[in-house]
Amino acid sequence: MRHSRGISDSLAPRRAKIARQVVLPFRKSLEISVKNIRVRFLRSMVTVASLVLAVAFLSFILTGSEIAAGMLRAGNPGFRAALIDAGYDLPATPPPPALAAAEAERLGASPKERWIVILSLLVCTVGIVNAQLMAVTERFREIGTMKCLGALDRFILRLFLLEAGMQGLAGSLAGALVGILGALLAGLVRYGLSGTAATSVAGLSRVLVVSIAVGAGLSLLGVVYPAIVAARMRPVEAMRAQE
């Protein structure tokens, strides 16, 4: 009994050393994730394209609300009339100056537009989950090889989260910029240069940050389940699936 305990104690440092060897640093995980995105560039672009469209629609709606709020804050009666003609539910008589700012803050997208945005984001999330599940199926042998070489479950999980994070940031940034530019052009056509110029830079910055955060969050949310499936996969099953 003492002999076996001594052997176990002597092997403990070696086991700890092996455990440290199989845990790759974050930089190596990032390199592998970038390489995987390059290898599967077309599939990644399909996932990113759906995210770009959803985020662009979101930022378009938010920017339109910011343009309308900026026109109300300007206090120009002509701007108010233009907004009423555009379909905004506003009283013809402007409120007192003390309530003008509150009216501009309450101005937002219509319930119909909100539901359309929610549905588009939901469809985008389902598409991301489907694309990531297909990616897991295609990478059975790769995942099995990494796990046979000593990759831990959290390393596999980290790879998928990093890939989804990079795709989410790229797609969200592109979609947010497209939506903001589209809304500014639409506002320029509808309200003219003077009406669009009333939009605050802080409001546009807020729209950009919110759109990127929502898009990146949806990308990470859509990859959680596929990443867990890949991380829990047994090496023998992964290697056998491609035979």
Automatic annotation (TrEMBL):
The chain crosses the membrane at residues 41-62, 115-135, 155-188, 208-231. It comes from Solidesulfovibrio fructosivorans JJ]. The keyword Membrane applies. Keywords: Cell membrane, Membrane, Transmembrane, Transmembrane helix. Belongs to the ABC-4 integral membrane protein family. One of its GO terms (molecular function) is transmembrane transporter activity. This is ABC3 transporter permease C-terminal domain-containing protein. Residues 116-234 form the ABC3 transporter permease C-terminal domain. InterPro entries: ABC3_permease_C, Macrolide_Exporter_MacB. GO terms for cellular component: plasma membrane. It is a multi-pass membrane protein. It comes from the Bacteria. It is found in: Cell membrane. Pfam families: FtsX (PF02687).
